[in-house]
Amino acid sequence: MSIIAENDVTVPRAAETSAGNLHQRVLSAVVLMPAVLALVYLGGWPFAALVAVAAVLMIVEWQRLTGGGRDDLIAAAQSLIALIAILLTLQQAVGAAIVALLAGVLLVAGLARWRGARASWPALGTLWLVLPCLALVWLRSATAAGLELLFGLLLVVWACDTAAYFVGRGFGGPRLAPRWSPNKTWAGLAGGCLGSAAVAGLWAHATGLASAGEAAAAGATLAIVAQLGDISESGVKRRFGVKDSGNLIPGHGGLLDRVDGLLFAAPATVVMVLLGGRGLA
Asked: Could you tell me which of 101, 112, 106, 46 has the C-alpha nearest to residue 79?
């Protein structure tokens, strides 16, 4: 979850509204973050339960977001698939979890067609939402340095969102992806990369997970991936003419709006860990 998202470049007449919304975002984050961090610290079943609840909430938001996919039966099937795959991952049966997820994607696609809906959006949503949940559970439970890795990932994504927001607002400039996310700028992306690189380097130095230089490069890479996640979700919202994925969190919108970058960054972190062999049990 990000403290601040969307590196908006607002016009002067919207400044007062933007400031009020920022205060709401910060207040909501202050309330929610301690509970989230406590469950991350505990790991095991408590953290897996948090991820499972988040998966179900995101699935419901996705069904509402994608318009024609408002089907409780499809959402129930997606949620069951998510719970089974998360449970298997927690038990370190990762291969079985991946098989269950891929079978679930096919099942959801077939169910959607049977219900007379388009199969593409429910199937895509199942993969888009559940795979990152498995990555988060695997990072925390299947690696020797799971706590440090997961805290580091969260810090990097938060740093990216926060730095991108303030640098984007402060410098403005050319738009990054005007068709999908018109408020994002190249300056915001650069700020997010620098912020993530600095935080990753400091965290690696404090924990000894990697050299500061390696971690900074990884942090900057994850910032780009996280911004791609943010832009991709914005593109889906624009496709369906929706401003927010939901209204779960005051000042933040839906859960999907707050973890869009994390959904892309978590699997990327797993790939980095596997390629680097660091922190593996």
From this structure: 101
CA distance 98 to 139: 15
In total, the chain counts a number of residues equal to 281
**Distance between CA atoms of 231 and 253, rounded to whole angstroms?**
16
Q: What is the CA radius of gyration of the chain?
A: 18
Beta-bridge mates of residue 280: 143
Distance CA 235, CA 264 (A): 14
Looking up tokens 């000042």 gives 251
Are the C-beta atoms of residues 164 and 188 closer than 8 Å to each other?
yes
Considering the entire predicted model, what is its pTM?
Answer: 0.87
- Look at the block and give the residue holding tokens 């740093």: 159
- Among 65-69, 74-78, 110-114, 170-174, the minimum mean pLDDT is found in 65-69
Q: Distance between CA 258 and CA 28 in Å, rounded?
A: 11
Residues ≥6 apart with Cβ < 8 Å to 89: 97, 134, 137, 138, 141, 142
HEC letters along 209-227: CCCHHHHHHHHHHHHHHHH
Q: What is the pLDDT of residues 129-170, one digit of tens each?
A: 999 999 999 999 987 889 999 999 999 999 999 999 899 888
d(CA 235, CA 139): 28
Q: How far is CA 53 from the centre of its chain?
A: 14
Q: In degrees rounded to 5, what are phi and psi of residue 11?
A: -80, 155
> Are 210 and 179 within 8 A, CB to CB?
no
